[in-house]
Amino acid sequence: MKVIKNIMKKIPNAIIIIASILVGTDIAYKADAAQIPATQNRDTLSVGKTWTLKQCTDYALENNVALEQSKIDADNAAIDVKTAKAAKYPSVSASASQNYSGNYFNNSTSEKNSYSGNYGVSANWTLYKGGYLNNIVKEKNVTRQIQDLTYTKNRLDLKVAVAQYYVQVLYDMENIKIRQESLASSKAQWERGKEFLKAGNMSKADCAKLEAQYNADNYQLVTAHSTYDSDMVNLKNALKLEREEMGIVTPEISEDKVLEIIPDRRNVFAKAINLRPEIEISKLYIKNSELELANAKYNPTISLNASSGTNNVSGTGTNYGKQIKTNWANTVGVTITVPIYSNRTYRSATEKAKNNISYYKLAAEQTENDMYKTIDNLYLNAKNTQQEYISAKQSYISAKESYDLVYEQFNLGMKNLVELEQEKSAYLSAEQQVAQTKYMALYNLQVLKFYMGEEIDI
């Protein structure tokens, strides 16, 4: 104790004053937090309803505009299937016409005005078209499956997007807290510094440094709030909540969850290839092109036509009812249509269908490659960010120990204010790195497991 007292006697008065400012930092933070300027102390994080990730996801699935449109596309595709099936059956129509004609230049009064009517029912039934009608039904059914799977894919993509926005907002919230702590600390130091400057116990240069640090921390907090607002807008857009205020629940995230064992990428891909709709969609596009090729061939058409009808004309001396009965006629006929020359329509359709088959085969291969690339990136990102998280925590512990040590040395006059601020900056940077790598590792791991059929759990 005597040694410490002897050392303290040799410390310049100004350094002792600055040390006394920093000694009260933790207490000052709690006391002065409410004194942060109004623009920084806004309650952005807690306005309106607070949402969990599951609530956000469920709401988005029910209200997202793009997803609703995708559902309508799927419904319309199902209607097209019914229309294609109905084309295999006869079509029946009825018609009735009543006509009037007048010839006012005819001297015969009885021939100036005449009336006539035609009434009938007709039917048409395509009996044969080389499998065209059956192929159309199959083609429309494949299109319906594509739209259904596209809707499913859009739901999965929306879940990932909501999770991404949610995790980003969680990080933004933690970053704001870190910046608020730093600002409160800087404010307490600066306020005390101004008091000692008035008393003549601190130089203007040291007080200016404290003010500059406060302004820098204030700017960082403003930037953190701006980033939070921007990321919250993205989340609200996904939820169709553009005009409403909201906040999100901050879950307890254990280290075990962040450092959970990462599934092997090959196992993830093996499961995803059977679970994800993208691969099946690409296969169905190939099948659709094959059906288009089958329908592009020259096919004769055999159709059955039938009609039944009658007519009447005025001025014949026969009453209306008798004319209707007498003129009633029924016809039945078969029509055979054989394409001879169609201005290259069929040949062009065949060539395009073959090209489409090749195109969609390449697209299917690319889809599979893209999926593996996505899974591979998620795996590597999860692995790297886990390692970065471990390293960041170690750096944080080291930075905190270094800051505490430099703080003690500063109190003993062995370090100056600039060195202390450098250590503080390194300490805050390490704290941010821990938060960032924690959420990145968590997100990549959860999305990787999502490709295996599990729900995203944050």
Q: Which features characterize this protein?
A:
two-stranded parallel ribbon, 67% helix, 2 domains, elongated, 4-stranded antiparallel sheet, alpha+beta, 458 residues, Outer membrane efflux proteins (OEP), 13 helices
Quick overview:
The chain is α+β, with helices and mostly antiparallel strands and 458 residues long. The chain contains 13 helices and 6 strands. The protein has 2 domains: 1-89 and 130-251, Outer membrane efflux proteins (OEP), CATH 1.20.1600.10; 254-298 and 342-458, Outer membrane efflux proteins (OEP).
Write structural notes for this entry:
The chain is elongated, with a radius of gyration of 40 Å. It has 13 helices and 6 strands. The strands form 2 sheets. Strands 2-3-5-6 form a 4-stranded antiparallel beta sheet, covered by helices on one side. Strands 1-4 form a two-stranded parallel ribbon. The two termini are 51 Å apart. The protein has 2 domains: 1-89 and 130-251, Outer membrane efflux proteins (OEP), CATH 1.20.1600.10; 254-298 and 342-458, Up-down Bundle (Outer membrane efflux proteins (OEP)), CATH 1.20.1600. The chain is an alpha+beta fold and 458 residues long.
